[in-house]
Specification:
This protein has 2 domains: about 1-120 and about 260-270, Diaminopimelate Epimerase, Chain A, domain 1 (Roll); about 120-260, Diaminopimelate Epimerase, Chain A, domain 1 (Roll). The N and C termini lie close together (about 10 Å). The protein is about 15% helix and about 40% strand. A hairpin with a 5-residue loop joins strand 7 and strand 8 (about 115-120). With about 270 residues, the protein is of the alpha+beta class. The chain is globular. The strands form 2 sheets. The protein has a 17-stranded mixed sheet that branches. Strands 9-10 form a two-stranded antiparallel sheet.
């Protein structure tokens, strides 16, 4: 069966997007893994499937997110921007709501073409992240060579953020897997490494659970902004520089995090599902 797909990215965080709103494509876990494989499939950081919302009119689309190993993710801000960009191209509209297994993401295409997504409230309690037991989420007892004392937050998925003087010497591929699978994270965690450049400018690299080191991580940028503000290192608004570009983050007083950034279509194609 030949199936259409769209290859998109947000600041280099890349996705394969397929559409099941009109018909089932039988996109099993095994097929998702093959599609995400960069050598035997199309290749992507996450595989995105568009579905009809479970409740009609509750959202414009349901976005299902699968990691390269086939596991399902609850949130992906860069993917949400890409999906909103697709909806805008389809309908000519500008305001949409994307639903995921973690909740609803109200979104807006701005006049400058950038997409703003309300990523929902930052969840700070240890139960919400979740952690294996009670802990101070502002200072976790966790360390690896070159890093220590992270802060944790849930943005619909678990994040731990380490603050460092200089990102360049940190061997993220070496320590990322160890930290992702630390015993305190029963669902594993996304691990962010942040260098404070100024009161409103951060540099971020993220080891994503199940995906590894990516060029950008939208929910990781939200986590970095929130945790930096909690530590008093920044205010509640900052630009986050990732390997693939830049994102604008605002942690509102009501706890919601607004993320603004680009969404880019790389190409469209067809693939035979096997």
């Amino acid at each position: 069966m030949l199936v259409d797909f769209i290859k998109m990215h947000g600041c280099g965080n890349d996705f394969v997007v397929m559409d099941e709103r009109g018909r089932s494509l039988d996109l099993t876990t095994e097929r998702a893994v093959r599609i995400a494989d960069r050598h035997r499939g199309i290749g992507c950081d996450q595989f995105i499937v568009l579905e009809r919302p479970p409740v009609a009119h509750a959202a414009d689309v349901f976005m299902r997110i699968r990691n390269p190993d086939g596991s399902e993710a609850g949130a992906c801000g860069n993917a949400a921007r890409c999906v909103v960009d697709l909806l805008a191209s389809e309908t000519g509209g500008r305001a949409f709501t994307v639903q995921t297994i973690s909740g609803f993401l109200p979104s807006l295409v701005r006049d400058d073409g950038l997409v703003q997504v309300d990523m929902g409230p930052a969840r700070l309690d240890w139960r919400d992240i979740p952690l294996a037991g009670p802990a101070d989420t502002l200072h976790l007892d966790l360390a690896a060579p070159g890093v220590s004392d992270p802060a944790a937050v849930s943005m619909g998925n678990p994040h731990a953020t380490f603050f460092v003087e200089d990102l360049d010497p940190i061997d993220i591929p070496a320590i990322g897997p160890q930290l992702e699978h630390a015993a305190m994270f029963p669902e594993r965690a996304n691990i962010g490494f942040v260098q404070i450049l100024s009161r409103d400018r951060l540099r971020l690299r993220v080891w994503e659970r199940s995906a590894g080191l990516t060029l950008a991580c939208g929910s990781g940028a939200c986590a970095a902004m929130v945790n930096a503000a909690r530590r008093g290192l920044t205010g509640r608004h900052a630009h986050v520089i990732v390997d693939g570009g830049a994102l604008d983050l605002l942690w509102r007083e009501d706890g919601h995090v607004l993320m603004t950034g680009p969404a880019t279509t790389a190409y469209r194609g067809r693939i035979e599902l096997v």
